[in-house]
Amino acid sequence: MKRVVVESGLHDSAIRPQTLLSEFRRLSIEDAKSFFSDPKELVEVACPACDSDQCHEAFQKEGFHFQECEECKSVYVSPRPSKVALAHYYQESHATQYRVEHFQRETAEARRKYLLRALSNWLGRIVDEKGNAQSRTFVDMGSNSSVLFDEIQRLGLFDSSYAVNPLPGLDVELAKIGVTISQGGVSGAGAISALHQLENQFSPFDMVKAAGDMLAINGLFFFTTRTISGFDLQMLWDKAPYIFVPEHLNLLSVEGIDRLVHRAGLNIIELSTPGQLDLELTAQARKADPSIELPHFIEYLIEQRDELAHNDFQAYLQKHRLSSHVRVAAYRPEGIDA
Question: Do residues 20 and 239 touch, judged by C-beta distance below 8 A?
Answer without folding.
Answer: no
